[in-house]
Amino acid sequence: MHTARPDQSHWQREMSFVGSPKSGATLLRGDPVVRDIKQWCLCEGHNDEVEPALAVLFFNTDSAAEHYAQIKAHVAAQAGVGYWAYEMPPGASSAEVKSQIQRLNQDKNIHGILIQRPLPQHLDELKIMASVNQLKNIEEYCDGQTANIVADAFSRLLSKYARLDLARQSTIHIAGFGNMITDGFISHMRHHYPHVSVTPHLPRNGDKTHQFNEYPNEQQHSLLVTELHHGPGYITTEKVPSGVITIVDLGFYTTANGTIVGDVDHKVYEETGLAIAPTPGIETLAISAAQL
């Protein structure tokens, strides 16, 4: 186990977005919302008696896992929230993981707990997540109410750009699964948005055997949320399903020079008529929203 608070300038550099600023697509960046949340945290979120602290338990299974943990540390520092990272070996037993979680549950100096996913395959995710004290489980407890922080960040972002009402009127296609798209995320989205379809893969245009559009009587506008794990830039212009006008990219990859990229190919950003929330916008926003 160790604590982590990386150099901020290093992470400001690594979190830079790969894509042309002169592209035709409208960029839905998380920065404006993150600034609002940070300002609230600094002005209203603290009191003289409590110094809020976030504990993140993660498994260093690959470079992306460590990058995620360091981004959380960066955002927490910006919001003035204490940050403690607990690294578990990928082969840790269920009993060992639950024991560490129990110590965090009982630590009065820890106010929020985040279990970074995906978990190693040998662990039962439902049982591990259930062992977190509900009042400290920030992934499913936001803004005083039970909620999924990624779905909460999704709504905050669209609201900032006046696209929330359009999302509620559109079909939202969720493609993939992993660290951000979880069962909790899908459940929250289905509860708060009337038209949600879920598929593990990105359907091909013209594939009539795949029921990608579950709501043919609705408006043709649709929104695509992806976390596909097929490599950076997997979604090319030709692979964007017809009718999609907004893409929320939750893919997460690190290039050789340390830049973070997502599922969407850079050529897609040249397309007019699209709005794209690039990586790591939602991820950073979700971590910030967890401070509320």
List the helices and strands and how they pair.
Blueprint (H helix, E strand, L loop, with lengths): L7 H7 L11 E2 L3 H13 L9 E7 L3 H16 L3 E7 L5 H13 L5 E4 L9 H6 L10 E2 L2 E2 L2 H12 L3 H6 L1 E6 L6 H10 L3 E4 L22 E6 L16 E6 L3 E2 L5 E2 L13 E3 L3 H9 L3
Helix pairs in contact: 2-9, 6-9
Class computed from helices, strands and strand pairing: alpha/beta
Low-confidence stretches: 1-21, 207-219
How is the biggest beta sheet arranged?
6 strands, parallel
Number of separate domains: 2
Helix share bin: 25-40%
Radius of gyration: 19 Å
Task: Let me know the average pLDDT.
Answer: 79
CATH architecture type of the largest domain: 3-Layer(aba) Sandwich
Strand order of the largest sheet: 1-13-10-9-7-8
Q: How many angstroms separate the termini? A: 26 Å
Summed up, the helix count is: 9
**Count of DSSP E strands?**
13
Output the CATH homologous superfamily of the largest domain: NAD(P)-binding Rossmann-like Domain
Would you list the SSEs in sequence order as H and E? Answer: HEHEHEHEHEEHHEHEEEEEEH
Strand content: 15-25%
Assign the CATH class of the largest domain: Alpha Beta
The shape is globular
The CATH topology label of the largest domain is: Rossmann fold
Protein name: Tetrahydrofolate dehydrogenase/cyclohydrolase catalytic domain-containing protein
Keywords: Hydrolase, Multifunctional enzyme, NADP, Oxidoreductase
InterPro entries: Aminoacid_DH-like_N_sf (IPR046346), THF_DH/CycHdrlase (IPR000672), THF_DH/CycHdrlase_cat_dom (IPR020630)
GO molecular function: methenyltetrahydrofolate cyclohydrolase activity; methylenetetrahydrofolate dehydrogenase (NADP+) activity
